[in-house]
Specification:
By secondary structure, the chain is an alpha+beta fold. Helix content is 39%, strand content 23%. The chain has 2 domains: 86 residues; 235 residues, BirA Bifunctional Protein, domain 2, CATH 3.30.930. The strands form 2 sheets. Strands 1, 5, 6, 7, 8, 9, 10 and 11 form an 8-stranded mixed beta sheet that branches. It has a 3-stranded antiparallel beta sheet with strand order 2-4-3. The radius of gyration is 40 Å and the shape is elongated. Bound molecules: ligand 2U9.
Length: 358
Amino acid sequence: METLDTVRAEALDAVGAAADLDALEQVRVRELGKKGRLTLLLKSLGGLDAEARKAAGQALNVAKEALAAAIEARKGELARTALESRLAGEKLDITLPVRPEMRGSIHPISQTIDEVIAIFGEMGFTVAEGPDIEDDWHNFTALNIPPEHPARQEMDTFYLPGTRDGHRLVLRTHTSPVQIRTMCRQPPPLRIIAPGRTYRCDSDATHSPMFHQVEGLVIDETTHMGHLKGCLIEFLRAYFAIDDLPVRFRPSHFPFTEPSAEVDIGCSRTRGSLKIGHGSDWLEILGCGMVNPKVLKACGIDAERYQGFAFGVGLERITMLKHGIPDLRTFFESDLRWLRHYGFSALDVPSLAFGLAP
Ligand code: 2U9
């Protein structure tokens, strides 16, 4: 049988000679593992008498501890050398050009919504929101749009299965139900805008089944058509950043306003190119009117005491006009090159004081 001295000397030599962590682990298993040489020596003590067993046992335990300590120390040494040789091999070339950083950008529709909120916010409007899934009372009936009205026909409206409080469910065709809900919930005076997604069963070069609108509503005891005109002229001049933008109001008809008007801005069309702000042509840009008393009554508002105006703007349209975006469909294609070209920096938050857009 091997003597303790021989085993210890060989084991310590092997620890010193272990060239890497794997080799060191092999030494540990060979000497101290379940069937390791020192472990077997310890087991073999059973045959000795008590006195000799005690002395040999102590010597063996001292040897085991010394070996375990030597293994730990060698492990530290090996780890240090491994790190040093890695550091010596790795070089950092600080003259290399920086990696390109992929930055996200704000979608032009989001930018327009932020700009519209900044402009109307300055005039004292707050933002109201409501559900995309509506019922036909909030989307049509309360707005004085009767069941036989063409806007209600299946071909224009996305009807959903099921009903709410006995009313058919629809994807809202305008954001007007947001104002209906606000009027039903909150007494006048009211001054709100409702930007958001709207849906119509229509898809071609100038219509998308999902598009965006912002509508506005002012209700109090004294607001009249002069306020409507001043407010919308102010909005259009701020949005297009043209102080003397020509604006004209043409009589029109909507079921929810009376009287109603369509609003045009001055432009020029020369050889297919459209320029906003000067020239002798007009471009239709939004619809508006004094809120029909029937709509106020549907929401439980005293139409003898209260009155006000409302308007609606298509956000894709004003965004295309301001930024020269030629095709509506590109808004929703999620083409990264398009988004990089037309998108806005997240740091350029629109405000009237610091400029709406860079
Ligand atoms: C309530 C009462 C009245 C909102 C209005 C228009 C005129 C209008 C179009 C503009 C372009 C829709 O996106 S578009 O096709 N909108 O012409 N919208 S008045 O009138 C309201 C709204 C809510 C309670």
